[in-house]
Design brief:
Keywords: Membrane, Transmembrane, Transmembrane helix. It comes from Tessaracoccus aquimaris. This is DUF2975 domain-containing protein. This protein has 169 residues and is an all-alpha fold. It has one domain. Helix 1 packs antiparallel against helix 3 and helix 3 runs antiparallel to helix 4.
Amino acid sequence: MNRAVVILVQICTIFVASFCIFFQVVVIPQAVTAEAALDPVIAQVEGRLIVMGILGLVCVQVVLIATAVLAQMSLGEGIFSRRAFAWVDLVIAACLAASALCVGFLISTAWLPALPPSADGAGDMTDVSLLLFCLAGAATALGFAMVVFVMRGLLRRAVTLHEELAEVV
């Protein structure tokens, strides 16, 4: 991979990771708290939403760091070593953790005591929105994990071929 591209990936990773930290510390707690003041359904799950948002961004940060390390390894022959598998496995684990986080939140909210329906029906829409948000998050993270798992198989094949070629030469 081109050195300029690797440097660009690392700069973007630092920028996005620091942006995630800002979201974890400032934006998510304030936004969820403000929404909880307006919606009784959100108020019931306020703490869980904050924790889910923060931990979800931790998963994103893990993927960013692993990607930056893999990009650095691609400069030389490091990407064709067994060390690369640890970073790829870390990406898969972070994606599976994000998916489990969404499913866990969905399960934890399933047993919430039902609120009386509001006159305008807004509580019903919030319930559906939370359900769709959790399902979409779980499906997206699981889909990304599956794609990375397939690419891990391609990397394994490339490493095997690289090792065989090294033996021949």
